[in-house]
Each structure stands twice: as structure tokens, then as C-alpha cells.
Amino acid sequence: MIHKTTRSPKTMRTVLFSAKFLVAGFLAAFTIQDKPSRPDESRFTPVVVADNLDEPMVFEVLRDGTAYIAERKGALKKYNPSTKTTDLIATIPVNTKYTSAEGVVREAEEGLMGMTFDPNFEKNHWIYLYYAHPTEKKHILSRWDLIDDQLVESSKKDVIEVETQREVCCHTGGGMTWDKAGNLLLTVGNNTGNQQAAQTDERPGRASWDDQGHAGNTNDLRGKILRIHPEADGSYTIPEGNLYPKGTAKTRPEIYSMGHRNPWRISVDSKTGFIYWGEVGPDAGEDSEIGPRGYDELNQARKPGNFGWPWFVADDQAFPVFDYGTNKPLAKKDPKNLINNSPNNTGLEKLFPTEPTFIYYPYGVSEKFPLVGSGSRSATGGPIYHKADFKNPKRAWPAYYENKWIVADFSRGWIMAISMKENGDYESMERVLPDYHPVQPIDIKFGPDGDLYILEYGSNWFRKSDNSRLIRIEYNGGNRKPIVQVATDKKGGTVPFKANLSSAGTKDFDGDALKYSWKITAPGVAPQSFATANAVANFAKPGVYTAMLTVTDSKGASNTQSLKIVAGNEPPLVSVNLAGNKTFFFAEKPIEYTIAVADKEDGSLADGKIKPEQVAVSIDYTSEGFDYAEVVQSQRSVDASTQFAVAQILMSKSDCKVCHQPNTKSVGPSFAEVSNKYKGQAGALDLLVQKVLKGGSGVWGEVAMAAHPSLPVADAEVIVKYILHSTDKTLSSLPVKGEFTPVIPKGDNGNGSVLIRAAFTDRAVSGSKAIPAQTSEELIVLRSPEVNGAEAPIAKGVERKALGVAGLGFCVVPYTNSYIGFQKIDLATISQIQLNASAETREGSVGGTIEIRLDSPTGTLIGEKQVEVAPPIDIAKMMAELESEKKNAKPGEAPKPRSRFARPPVVLQIKETTGKHDLYFVFKNAKAKEIQPLMSFSKIKFIQ
Questions:
Q1: In a 3-state reduction of DSSP, which class is residue 551?
Q2: Cα–Cα distance between 171 and 110 in angstroms, integer?
Q3: Last residue of a domain, one of 500, 534, 567
Q4: Containing structural domain, residue 793
Q5: What's residue 304's pLDDT?
Q6: Which residues of the chain have a pLDDT value below 50?
Q7: Residue 762 neighbours by CB under 8 Å, 6+ apart
Q8: pLDDT digits over 446-458, tens only?
Q9: How far is the C-alpha of 659 from the C-alpha of 708, rounded, in Å?
């Protein structure tokens, strides 16, 4: 029997909705399963393409891997993938300065700002460069033929000019890209004076400070995104669909969008045609009567439009037009009925309503977009990823990133993947390669082979940085080879002996089962084989053995590593013993050391059978960043090269041997000739160091010595000391017991290391089989007492961010219950620790407690300090003090260095501690939210 059940219409709708919901959920479950999973970071490998760059701005990559890089001062460079060299191919005359109303010449942001290749470059060889004219107040987009790596001057066509001013700084734009129709898009900065708020100074003679006449002016190209169609004869036409139709009075038809402060790197979504770019915002740290706090923006344009600057920022937060005559803010504008009535406006008064901002974030924590972090900001932009944009790419990025916008922030040093809904609306964001920290990424795009390229400007502004480079991020979507590590507890000994062979550290990122195969061989000796991860090998006969480990994964991919073991000669024991602190050096304070050497066959220093002159002892101060691990090499002979091992490493990284040889003349004099000429002369060390750094000519002939201005002065000193002693007939060595007082070379930042190294080579063993001598050494590295918290090897819950201040690298932003840690730190003689920590309201910091603990985050507490939120810095007062200091300065006296955000250091008194410990800095604030930063800091200083 069928029973009929009566339901109300409302009930029926509920049932139908529930059924629909269940079906949708069922389908969604399968959809989620089919959605590509996030690839492991180990599948991405950053590869240095080109380094030693000088203020790189933009780049382009060809299908064969050739890269072209434009630098701000006008250089155009080419990276050759065959030779792996980067060469200068042209220099464009450009302006890089501006002259203030007071007649002071300063660095501007302009120069060679933009570069792009024509979409048909392989056929027509056209390259477009956007640059500041060297003498006239204008920026020019010009086209050249690039033939055989030469800019053909006769082919030059000036495509479009942008009139500018050079009274105040800043903002130039310079980003370029092409759409499918062959239209060229160019970002142009507002070229207006830069202060904390919007610049709307309408007083006579202050036009350079009124952005209503630049970015807000429909008859001016500044503060715009332009869209033009370059023609074969070097002219351009206006494509349909720009903001104002051609012929509209008081407008420029080239304008696609307006109301920009500093639009930067621009890209076009090949699928939707939407345009994306980074927008650098104003500097205000908090809301005030002159306007809202500053925001950077990551923007999307689905059509031409007005993005509101200088009257609006972020989600239409308004700046009042400021009356500088009465020093009062006037009324705010209406974003939907926007009128530009500035006397500096030469365009239309009534403007289009403002377009919505896609993503925006301040100095402080963004509640809406918390993942962007806090602190210095400078939105760069980046490309939209579509695999279909690449023809047969070698290493296409995974499908997980399909349709996502890959963006970077110049100051914060992150790369972000932004996901969008089908209609283009914002959906979510996530970090890309969070362990890779680009140093001020200034340009980012995919190359023809599917690799993501990132151009790192480097940490120094307006000058060359040793960490500026072009990086390629390669993706490996297939099976990865195992990573093999080998070690032994004995690298040799008198026979018979046993050695423990270890594969500790070997891993496979794919999680495959691994097979291990050890093979130990020596001439005339039966091989030993083991099929275990670790093995114990027996050495009964003298000889030089090779222990090779082959590791194979379940898919057949294999990798090998090997080491040498010398049987028949016990390696000597060498130790460096220090009095006082064994972790840090302190400038101008002596280091007491004693070297001990003992050898089973040859005796010891203590019994006199090993003479002090047989032991190489060296102490070098090296600059910050020197890789001391390269100094530790076995099988060295005891001669001058051992004594000057650090110099040998430095020279191998430089170009010294291109022009100089140890004993024979090359392009330049031999090291021996230099030594014979200068050794023993007063002041020779300083003279030659300056010659290395600045170059010179006329001493050894017509060929000039190249300058090496980027070589740290400390490293130049080490090299010169080696050259001066290169003719020593006997081992030049420090005594095996003594005292060394470190002196920081003039011009060095003092953040380097003192390397104390002792090495001894015993005698070879003769007999039926000659057993080679064994060299042992010990290297003690004393680090600067000033360390960067961002370099802590242990970190949990903190964020590392690139600082936007020249040369300061990275800072640490801790959150509640986070910590950083340093391993094996000796606190002997240390009484206090200083941090340049501060909790700034402009960054959203809320303050907290710093605890210093031993051996674990919950270990013995040896010091603590509360860091309160600092009151805002009175910028006006500071500027007044600077002006006063400038007026009262004596002739030739340099002004005192001063940071506008300087705070006194936070000082933590610590308890007396002996021995080496892992040292933890723990940050707490029970009242803080998880997304609220407690403070920020970079430097930690250990004080005796």
C-alpha cells in the first residue's frame, strides 16, 4: 500500500534544498579530492643565474635561457647560459639625480627604469627601454634594434615621452607588458613630492607637490597606466577601449587607468585579459587629520578606470585636500562624484568614480589580509600563471598554481600566490617558498621554459649590493634523487683498525624506500661490500681506501657520495685552546691561545719531537658572510698556502688569477714581483689594499688594474698579506702560543669573524706501500658579538622579514609564545645582552616579555625584560633637531648618523654562566592575539 504524505510548501522547499545540498556536498567531496595538492617546497630549487649586479631594475628571458638585465644607472647586461657569464653590452645615458629648491643634488629613483622585448622579438629584434633623459626633464620610451648584442643606434625610435619635474623625488613606474592584441602597457609613477600623506599643495610655485596636477589630471601621463599600440615605423596608435576616447578634450588618449601613486610591475592575465600590478602607497603609520594611514595595494583592473589617488587609498579611505596656507585640512572628496578643481589641473574637472582596490595592507597587521605580515612594505606585483602560456616548457610549474597571481613585496621579501574565484574576485592567499627570502625583489616573471625568475635588487639603495642577483626557481615534478650524506669516525689510523661508516643525513624527499650499497676499495686489496645504511669496515692492510655509498630509491634513481680513509698512518691530533670566551671576539681585546699537536708516530709539541715551526698557525679577520667551511680541507701540505688558506679561498672567488700568477708574469705582475717590490715598506699593506679596491695604473706598465670596490676591505687585507708573504722561503706562521688582538679594518662593519686555524702534516710512512702523510687541522671561528636574530638556526613562531633600510638585511617579528635559538654559545665573561627591539604602533606591535633561557625554551631562566609599546616618534621634532645640528655643524663636519625610527636598545642583565649552551630568546604576551606581532628587532649584541 502506498501512503500519501502531505507536506507544506515550506517543508517541501526544505527537503529539496537538503537533497540538493547533500548532492552538492557529495560532488564537492570528489572535486576536492581531484584538486591538485600543494607541492612540497623541496621540489623547488632556487638557482643563481646572474649576480654581481649594480642596481638591477628589470629583466627579460629568451627561450634559450639568455637573460637581459637593465640597471638603474643605464647598463644593459646579458647573461649567456652557455658560458654562464654576465656581460655589459650597452650603456644608456640617463639621469639619476634631482636638484631640490635649495640647490642640493640628491639621488632620484629614476634612471633606466623599464625594458621589454617586442612579442615578435625573434623576428624583428626590437627592444624597448624606458629611461630618464640625461639632460631634459622627461622620461622616454625608445625602441632599438638589438643585433648581435649591440643596440643599433641608427635604428633608435623615440616612441612616447612623459614630461616630468626634477625638483623633488619620487616614483617612476617603468613596468611594461603586452596583451594578446599586441598592445603595450606601461606604468608611469606620479613624479610628485613624497611625504606621509597625499600631496595636494595648491599654493603658487608648488606644482611639484600637487598630485592633483599629476596622477589626478586626465591631461597628464604621470600616475597612469598607459596602453598604446607600437607601430613598425616607431610611432604608436591608440587601441579602442582606453579610459577616454581619442579626441576627448583635456584628456590623453594613451591613458588606460589613472589615479596611481607608483604603479610598479604589471602583468596581463592571458585568460581573462584582466590587468594586475603592485601599487606603492604613502608612508603614514597611523590615521590622522591629514588622512588615513598608508596602504600598499595589489590591484586588478577588469576595465579602464580611476583608482583614486591622490584623494583615496585602500577601500576608498579619503585624504582631505590640505590647505597649506592656513595649515588646515579641507573637506574630503566623494569617490562616486569626484571633482578635481585644483589650479594645477589641466584636465577634466569631473572624473570617473573610483574603482575598487583588490588587496591593500598597512605597516601594521592587516585584519583582512593577515598573511602579508607587517612592517616595511613595497608591493611589487608579478605574473598570473597559466601553463598554456608556455610552448612545451621544460619545467612547467605544477597545476596547483594554475590561475593564481604570483606576487612579491620588495620590502617584506615574500612571494605570495593569490587565488581568485571564477569571476576574478579575491579568494585566498598563501606563501610560496617561505624558506626562500629574496632580498628586495624588484621584478618577477615566468620565463619561456616555465621557470619563475626573480630579480633581487639587493640590500643597498642607490648603490651596488653584493647580494643583488637574478634567481631562477626550478620545479621538479618527477622523482627526486636521494640526498646522500657519508661520514666516518676515523679518517685513518695504524693497521689494523676499524672505522664506523655512517649515512646519517641521507634522505629521499619522495619518501621512497631506500637501498644502501657500501663499497670499500683500495689497489691490491679485496673490496668490502655492505648493504646496510651504516657499516663497520676493517682495515688490516696499509693503503688509501675509497668508501663509496650508493643509495637507490624504489624507482631506480640513485646518488653516490664517497670519502677517503688512509690505513697505515694515524692522523695527528690538533687542537686550539682559548682562554676566555670561546664564541665571540671583541675588537681591541686580546685573545689568548695555545696550540696542542700530538701524533702517534711523530711525537708531540709537548715532548719537543714536533717543532713549533712545523705547525701552521694563522689568525685572520674575515668580512661578514665569508664561508669559513671552505677553509677546512684535508690532505693539505704545510707550506705558505696552508698558512694563507683563507686568502686562497678569497682569491679563488675573485678575479685575481685572471691577471696574476704566483711566480710568472701575466697581464699583470706576478705575486712574487709585487712581494719583492713592496715587502718591508712602511704602509705597503694599506697602499696595496687601496690599490685592490680602487684600481690603479702606471706602476707595472700600460695595463690598468681593475678596481674591486665591492670587495670587503677586510678580505682585501687578507689577500694582500698573502701576496706580500708569497716569497717567504719558510713557513710564515704565528707562534703556537700567544696573544692576538683583533682590529676591525677601516671601512668594515665589524660583523665579520676571527678565524684561528692550526694545521699539521705528519710524515709519510715508507715501506712496501708508501702511505701518504696525514694532515689534521682545527679551525675555531669566533663570531662578532653582534648577531642578527633573523639568522638564528632555531626558530618557532617568528617571522623573518627583509628590512627596507639599506644594508640592514632581515629582521625578526616574534608573536606570543615564539622563540629563536642559537646553538653552543659560550657566555663566559658576558654580563648583558642588548637587542635593538622596539614595539611600534605603526607596525601594529603590542609589546611583550623577552626571556633568555638555556638549552630549551623552558630551560633555566638567566635574564628577562618587558618591552612596552613605544610612543610615536615626533618626526617634526626630529627633523628640527637635524636642521639645528646641520646649522651648528662646523665646516667639514659630517652630520651624526641618525635613523628616523631609532630607539634605545633593550638591555637584559644575565646571570653568570659557564660552558657552552644552546641559547633561547623566548617572547611572551598572554594578552596578545595570535596574529599580533609583539615587537621587531634585528641585532643582538653580547656585552662583556
A1: strand
A2: 8
A3: 567
A4: 786-943
A5: 98
A6: 1-33, 633-641, 658, 702, 805-808, 898-901
A7: 569, 571, 572, 599, 601, 602, 773, 774, 775
A8: 999 999 999 999 8
A9: 13
